[in-house]
Design brief:
Length: about 230
């Protein structure tokens, strides 16, 4: 797994993403692999909070009572949810990705975080900016105090789509080179557009399609996923 120390230095207890060497951590994947990762990080694998991801723009506010949603058999994931926010200390937010962009958000002043699954559709519809606005509304977070990281995902080097999709992306104002989408740039632009200072938006710059460190839907296409995890 890779730990994002630049976020952990802001006071969150964990900011990481699992790699191929950690195994398939998806909800349909290898539960033992996920448990191993959680144990290694000192958290209970039954505490994760997950949404049922649908490439939409619904954002759930996670409370203490949501602990275990999507991992405990009697506690289903937030339905049709692609981003999670919380201000509960020690509540682990988890998403599952293979090429889709994980966006990590930390606002250390008011003490709130967000973890976003921003695929092509979610990016097109502006889920990163919507999440910043929800943090403002819910917790009184100030965009100027937000730090964000765009994690390993499909890079502009490899993320080629068909002509109509490229056109739709360009029409929305997001970065496109021919038929190659730049999801990193688009999400960074959305965060900046919502008021997050450019200097506080980091891009991991690792492409899951051409780096073999991570599971990739494009390269593997077998349902295996990497798990980004963020714990306040
Ligand atoms: Zn690439």
């Amino acid at each position: 797994m890779v730990r994002f120390h630049e976020l952990e230095q802001l006071g969150v207890s964990l900011a990481l993403m699992t790699e191929v060497s950690d195994g398939d951590c998806s909800s349909r994947g290898d539960k033992a692999a996920r448990t191993r990762v959680c144990v290694a990080c000192g958290i209970d694998g039954e505490d994760l909070v997950c949404g049922s991801q649908v490439h939409g723009v619904e954002i759930a506010v996670a409370l203490e009572s949501d602990r275990g949603r999507g991992v405990r058999t009697d506690h289903p994931a937030f339905p049709a949810t692609d981003a999670l926010v919380t201000n509960v200390r020690g509540l682990p937010l988890a998403i599952f990705v293979a090429d889709c962009v994980p966006v990590y958000i930390v606002e250390p002043k008011t003490g709130c975080i967000a973890l976003i699954h921003a695929g092509r559709e979610g990016t097109l519809r502006g889920i990163a900016g919507l999440t910043v606005r929800l943090l403002q509304k819910t917790y009184g977070a100030s965009p100027g105090d937000i730090h964000a990281l765009i994690g390993p995902s499909a890079g502009p080097c490899c993320y080629e789509v068909d002509e109509p999709r490229a056109k739709a992306f360009a029409a929305a104002g997001w970065a496109v080179r021919g038929r190659y989408l730049d999801l990193w740039n688009a999400n960074a632009a959305q965060l900046a557009g919502a008021g997050v200072p450019r200097g506080q938006i980091a891009v991991a710059g690792v492409c899951t399609i051409c780096s073999e460190t991570y599971y990739s839907h494009r390269r593997c296409g077998d349902g295996r996923r990497n798990m980004p995890l963020l714990v306040l």
